[in-house]
Amino acid sequence: MKVVCALGSSLVSLVVSAPALAAASLSGAGATFPAPLYSRWISDFEKVNPETKLNYQPIGSGGGIKQFIDGTVDFGGTDAPMTDEQIAKVKGNVLHVPTALGAVVFTFNVAGVQKPLNLTPETACGIAMGKISTWNDKRLLSLNAGVTLPSAPLTFVHRSDGSGTSAIFTDYLSKVCPEWKDKVGSGTAVNWPVGLGGKGNDGVSGLIKQTPNSIGYVELVFAEKNKLPVAALKNKAGKIVSPSTNSVTQAFADSVAKLPSDFRMSITDADGAASYPISGITYLLVRKNMSKEVGVPLVKFIKWGLRDGQKICPSLSYAQLPAEVVSRVEKALNVIELK
Amino acid sequence: MEIATKKLLLEFMVTTQAKRKRKNIFANLVLSILAILAVSPLVAILGFLISKGIGALSWEFLTSLPAPYGESGGGMGHSIVGTFILVLFASLLGIPVGFGAGIFLAESSKESRFASIVRLCAEMLAGVPSIVVGLFAYFVAVLPFGGFSAFAGGFALSVIMIPVIARTSEEILRLVPVHVREAGLALGLPRWQVVMRIVLRGSRKGLFTAVLLAVARASGETAPLLFTALNSRLWSFSATQPISSLPVQIYTYATSPSEEWHQQAWGGALLLVLLVLGMSLFARFLFSGKKYGT
Fold first, then answer.
1. Domain for residue B186, yes or no?
2. How many CB pairs under 8 A join A and B?
């Protein structure tokens, strides 16, 4: 009994003394894709602002939006902007802050082929629709002169779980492939016409490694970290472009003229000659009306991320925001009202 | 009976006995193999975890915060502390309720309808998938308070612990012989004193075992914490802030793109398994050869 009492009282003192220990502590949750980048940002930011403590947890874009709507987090994270219905649920009290860019890349497992393959919108469409069923299909051979492609059947691998990666991938296919738009459509999870499903980037890449003559899609960060062979893709301007942090930033830069004031935009299939076509924006979700305790450190962190944070991006395989976008986002932050 | 018939009968008995012996050996063999198969996953899991995880374990791993992405080192110190805090909260909420229910069940007569309903409910609660418990706790302890918190995580874990404690403590309290209770009553002790001074006091070790088993069960749970305690990259000692725990930290690291974080996830998994197995073994050791009053 004495032990229990001692435990209880020490716990109470623990809880009571806690606020003194912890400085302003903000919590956020959402998209998995930018979580490693944010962990680095937060750590570097805290070195110069030790009084602020931030916590971001990867629970997925859908989870991030839901928790933001439910008000359980101080900020959310998502790879797909909120829909109009979702924005209505928070009565418009949300600002989408672009923080970094990502891309979806094709990776493959064909014996003897290590060099990057070349693909076009038509062949990407054919592979995902199941119309291109062998590796020595004429459309693939003509794009990849000098590469020996086998006559083996081609297996397509996709995500089985709901994912921002799939959302960007299917958004791209819906733009370049009318048949895909009619029969499948875009979203975090769709009815795949063909192929095997793997959970997460690691699930997809694992499945590709195990399955000879397979091809699938993963995030650029994941492909670079794991040194997977990737395919270059012909963009809207007709140029074949390799996925890289530069060609992804370019895709956003080429779309800046069309960028709406709320920053909700798709940058797949962008116009410019140097842009990689399957690119996407990741956002932080913040409220336009916030308390000072939350708002002051959060805005400070976002401003830091837009300037200093951007410089860290390429070294971690994340694509930077174009400079023009950074200044527009900084201006947009002025709408935030602190009470 | 004629000699020939006797001989025939004897032969028949000898052959059937040999047959039975063979059958017996065969059945024994099959069952032994199945028994080995049944325990081999434990051996395999332990072997696998040790080979993958031992490399990640270090003093830094046990005592420091996670390193940010792209930097090496770091650890799970905050998750270890967080797991203990969560289990402490869960125990404070769950042990009194669990014991109360256990005492009630043990003291009520076997025929009591209400007691059998309570027992049935406790069993059903123990069978509720832990992710459902997590969702329940999200609606009860996260949404109304407007945020993820260690308190909500402890609440979710306590829901897991309560039926375990209630059922185990009932079994243990029922071990107290009727004549011992009657002896107390015969001396003129009121019932509550019999329960407090004789039944509970004599079952201390057993009750501690019940707590240990429930704690072991709760400290390995991931699903109830995902949407209640969330996770944190900070040292947290507050009931109202998100807090880290070993299972959730392992889950987060295992699904990340970083090879170094995968390593840390293995280390964390090894630590968690050692913690849970250690508690279960300790509980068994305490309760071995358990009789009333020991």
1. yes
2. 99
